[in-house]
Amino acid sequence: MAASYVGRFAPTPSGPLHLGSLLAATASWLDARAHGGRWLLRIDDLDAPRTVAGAEAAILATLEAHGLAWDATVVRQSDHLQHYRAALETLAERCFACRCTRRDLHGATRYPGTCRALRLPRRGNALRLRVDAVSGLHAFDDRVQGRYSQQVAAAIGDYVVWRRDDIASYQLAVVVDDALMGVTHIVRGADLLDNTPRQLHLGACLGKAKPSYAHVPIVAEASGVKLSKHNAATAIDDRAARYNIRNVLALLGLDPPRGDIAELLAWAAQRWRIDRLPRVPVLPGFVAVS
Questions:
Q1: Alpha-carbon distance 71 to 127, whole Å?
Q2: How far apart are CA 215 and CA 156, in angstroms?
Q3: Cα separation of 275 and 30, whole Å?
């Protein structure tokens, strides 16, 4: 596995990292290091309105402060725009224009096919990929959560691959990005688990190799709400990096010894077993380790 393992961490520059994102980054980094693989960093800056000035620099500084070194030049989604359009061209015959807004769909989890047969103009509308019952069934063995399957046609329906504001959807961008970077192993938060069947479906449509997935439990506040930038989660304090790494390792089921950050990470990489993480989507609480 050492020669073929390529992992990645792909934060959105919509704010600084918080404890949950640091946990995901650390788990991904440890998994790559434990297998002698490479760990890449991508900044998911495709959605310009969500990008916050200075956020990318803050993210890089936090990763460096916590000893999470990446192995190649930082990649940015904004450098991949031509690749997204090329992928859309490949999918063109399977797509249709859709004018439905979120309000029109009333929060429905499954797209009802409203615009499928309307032959609407593509300009100014979103583009959805047709999903049929045969090609839309995807199952995979997650290295943390176990067997997961979803019939995309029944659960999600035809989904957006190109937004009405003329940028690639998250689903399309991430599949293209990971293929371009040669990513073989994806370690990320369990809140993205139900995205994976759509990404597998898209990857199959585009002829991309299927990565290995591991969805680690996310960190929640005492109230049970997921830590996220959207919920204004407290930013990581880089001045307390050693304390932060010890807490993250404890949350990941390790009993960290004393030592500096480099020693802690080297110790953790030698003992890392991702299959020993609990098969739960959310960690039960915050473990403080001094």
A1: 36
A2: 20
A3: 13
C-beta separation of 185 from 32 below 8 A: yes
Print the SS3 string covering 36-47: CCEEEEEECCCC
Span 32-71, pLDDT tens digits: 999 999 999 999 999 988 899 999 999 999 999 999 999 9
Contact partners, residue 288, CB within 8 Å, separation at least 6:
247
E-strand spans in the chain? 6-9, 38-43, 75-76, 95-98, 126-129, 137-142, 146-151, 159-162, 185-189, 212-216
- Model pTM? 0.91
In sign, the C-alpha dihedral spanning 70, 72, 78, 80 is negative
Distance CA 117, CA 133 (A): 18
**Lookup: tokens for 158:** 């035809």
Read off the pLDDT of each residue in 127-139 and give the average, rounded to a whole number. Answer: 87
Q: Are strands 137-142 and 126-129 parallel, antiparallel or unpaired?
A: unpaired
Tell me how far CA of residue 11 lies from CA of 20, 21, 42, 82, 148, in angstroms.
Answer: 11, 8, 7, 21, 24
Token readout for 280 is 């739960």
Question: By C-alpha distance, which of 92, 154, 102, 155 is closest to 128?
Answer: 92
Domains in the chain (CATH in brackets) are 6-78+178-276 (3.40.50.620), 82-170 (3.40.50.620)
Torsions phi, psi for 199 (to 5 deg): -70, -35
